[in-house]
Amino acid sequence: MMGMPSCREVTRMLAEGEFRNAPRRTRWMVRLHLAMCRHCGRFARQMNLIAQALKALVSRRPDEFNRPDVAERIIARLRHL
Amino acid sequence: MLHPMAPSNIEEEIAALKECRDGAMEKLIRERTPALMAAGFAMGFSRTDAEELAQETFSAFLEALERFEGRSQLKTYLFGILYNKASDLRRRRGREESLDAVQEEFEKRFNAGGMWSKPPKGPEESALNAEIESLIAQCAEGLSVSQRAAFFLKEAEGESAEEICNVLGVSYTNLRVLLYRARIKLRECLERNWEKRS
User: Fold this and answer.
1) What pLDDT score was predicted for residue B197?
2) In angstroms, what is the C-alpha Rg of chain A?
3) pTM of this prediction exceeds 0.90
C-alpha cells in the first residue's frame, strides 16, 4: 500500500481483523485515514462493538449447559450403546 | 483457575482408554463435556441439541480411538468432531444458508474510487452497552455454524489461527474471508436493527 488507503481498503482490513498484523506503515496510514474520515471512524467503532459483544456471547456458559448431570447422562447412554 | 480442559497427561489418558481401563471413559467425558457444551451453545444450539452433539462426539471419538495419534491436541481434535456433527445437524435442519449476498451488498456501498457512496449508519457509541449488545446477539443468530465456531475458538478458547483452521478444515485465507463476511453481516444487521428501533 503506497499512498493513503481508500475507504474500501480500510474497511476490509478492519473487518478481516488483520489490522494488528499489518506492517507499521500501513497501520499508521489507516489510523490517519480513520482520524480524517468520519464514516470509516464510525465503521471502526462498530467493528469494536461487534468484537466486544461477540466475545461476551461466545464466552458465556449458561447454567443449563453446564450442569454436572449432562456428563452423567452421556455416560449412562454410551454404556447402553 | 482450574481449567476443565487441561488434564495432566494426555498419552496416559489415551492409553487407559485404548485398554478400556476402568473409569477412563467416564473421566474423559466428565472432563471434556463442559467445553463441548460451551461450544454447542456458542454455535447457537439448544441445550438438548448441544447434549446430543457432545454425546455423538464422544461416541465417534471412542469408536475411532485407534486413529487418534496425538498429533493434534485432544481438545481441538474433539472440537473438530463436534464441529462436523454440528454442521451435519444444521444441514439436516435446512438452516445453513447458501453463499451470502452480504458481501455483494457491501461492495455497493463504495464508488469506483473506493470511497463511501452509501456511508454506514447505526450506533456511534465507542463503548458497548446492554442495548447494543443485545442487538448484536440477535444478529449473531444469522451467522453460520462455521462462523460461530470460529469466533468461539478464537474468543472463548483463545485458539491460534492455525488450530482454528485445523478444526474447521479450512485454509488461513478461507478463515479470513469467513471472519470478514461474519463481521460485515453483523454490522449490516446491527445498522438495520438500530434504524428500526423505536
Assistant:
1) 83
2) 22
3) no
Is B118 among the domain residues?
yes
CATH (domain of B106): 1.10.10.10
Q: In chain A, which residues have their Cβ closer than 8 Å to the Cβ of B187?
A: 15, 43, 46-47, 50
Return the SS3 of B116.
strand
Task: Kindly determine whether residue B180 and residue A65, on different chains, have CB atoms separated by under 8 Å.
Answer: no
Q: For residue B2, is it left (φ>0), alpha (ψ between -120 and 50) or beta?
A: beta
Cell of A33: 485515514
Q: How far is CA B171 from CA B102, B148, B175, B178, B180, in A?
A: 21, 17, 6, 10, 14
Residues of chain B with pLDDT under 70: 1-8, 71-72, 95-100, 198
Q: Domain range spanning residue B29? A: 10-92
